[in-house]
Design brief:
The chain is an alpha/beta fold. 44% of the residues lie in helices and 15% in strands. Helix 7 crosses helix 10 and helix 8 crosses helix 13.
């Protein structure tokens, strides 16, 4: 399916006119092969200018649409893509537009950020950051604080509610008893998401408690084979669900007692909002972006990233304390309701667009003068 073309679409969805454009990727295998050869024989990586051809997304139809749009503002995501360079060429257009970037930059512990991403962020009229942590890091790298708005994203709480009968049926179908405590993960089934750390902690947790059940659900990757091997080797009571439909999320979250996202590389963490919408306590890695969202011992618990012993400690704290589980889940639910409803996020985005127009207009007027 690697070269399957995106279905061109021109449709209305929830009052939004949606166009889908193709992008070019015939060169992906060539770049991958070149990278393998270069590393094997010279232990070095491809030059940035070549590597960027893969992850930059080359879509002439999108560029054309941006150049010809009659919209008041252009907003794009995510930093690194070719169309994020719009400010570099917009002044050559007859009708350039204000430009907003929802960067979603992942500041990984111990790893730097490529200067190209920062240069893209500096060019925009407004940068939308997911968290205060992201804003702080960008300011440290030279971005003007007045051009950064912290908005994040939202969820629809009602999407994560379901009937008690649906939950009971799911548990019955999967052999989950009334006294069992269900620990769950929803995300890409990828080692890079910290699943190896989670599995290590769960193996040791099962040595302590016999009433633990585990739900692992998400988009399948090459790591699934290794994941299945771990489950079989240690005879873990895991309900593994690959490539599930979004309509199943509500039942999955509601069937859990504890939600865990062990990833040490996140720019936000929508899954925490989803779990809170079902009033579930969460455990996340103590990294900047996650710690901006998950307040330790208020709406969730934090563990040392990459440390399965630390994760085991936090899991144990919730497994043994139902009252704490309930309180953290309720606090998380209240936070989603008060701060991350789509009504609040939409209002924040509208204000951001108006500010982008103001910044863009002031900049053009100063150039003319």
């Amino acid at each position: 399916k690697m070269f399957q073309k995106i279905k061109i679409a021109d449709e209305w969805m929830n009052g939004v006119h949606v166009y889908r454009k193709n992008f070019r990727r015939w060169h992906f295998p060539l770049i991958r092969l070149a990278a393998l050869i270069l590393y094997k024989f010279f232990k070095t990586s491809l030059p940035f200018s070549i590597g960027k051809l893969k992850w930059g997304i080359d879509s002439p139809p999108i560029i054309k649409a941006m150049n010809q749009t009659t919209a008041d503002v252009i907003m794009v995501t995510t930093a690194g893509y070719n169309f994020c360079d719009y400010p570099l060429w917009r002044d050559k257009l007859p009708n350039p537009k204000p430009f907003v970037l929802y960067g979603s930059i992942h500041f990984r512990p111990g790893l730097g950020i490529h200067k190209y991403l920062i240069e893209q962020a500096k060019l925009v009229d407004i940068y939308i950051a997911n968290t205060g942590f992201e804003k702080k890091k960008l300011m440290e790298l030279g971005l003007d604080s007045s051009k950064i708005v912290v908005a994040g994203t939202g969820v629809t709480i009602s999407d994560f509610t379901c009937h008690r009968d649906e939950i009971d049926q799911f548990k019955e179908n999967n052999g989950i008893g009334e006294e069992d405590i269900v620990i769950g993960y929803i995300g890409r089934l990828k080692k890079g998401k910290g699943l190896d750390i989670l599995m290590d902690a769960l193996i040791r947790l099962m040595e302590i408690y016999a009433n633990i059940r585990i739900i692992i659900a998400g988009e399948s990757t090459e790591y699934v084979a290794e994941l299945k091997s771990i489950i079989t080797t240690y005879q873990l009571p895991v309900i593994l669900i690959e490539d599930f439909d979004n309509s199943e999320k509500a039942v999955l979250y509601n069937a859990m007692d504890i939600f865990v996202m062990p990833s040490a590389s996140e720019s936000f963490g929508v899954v925490f909002l989803e779990a809170w919408s079902a009033k579930k306590p969460v455990i996340g890695a103590n990294i900047g972006a996650v710690a901006s969202l998950v307040q330790h011992e208020y709406n969730g618990l934090l563990f040392e990233p990459g440390n399965s012993e630390s994760l085991l400690e936090q899991l144990n704290a919730l497994v043994t304390n139902k009252r704490l589980r309930n309180q953290l889940g309720i606090n998380g639910f209240d936070q989603v309701k008060n701060e991350y409803s789509w009504e609040k996020i939409a209002t924040a985005y509208r204000e951001t667009y108006l500010l982008a127009i103001e910044n863009f207009t002031a900049k053009r007027e100063s150039v003319i003068e």
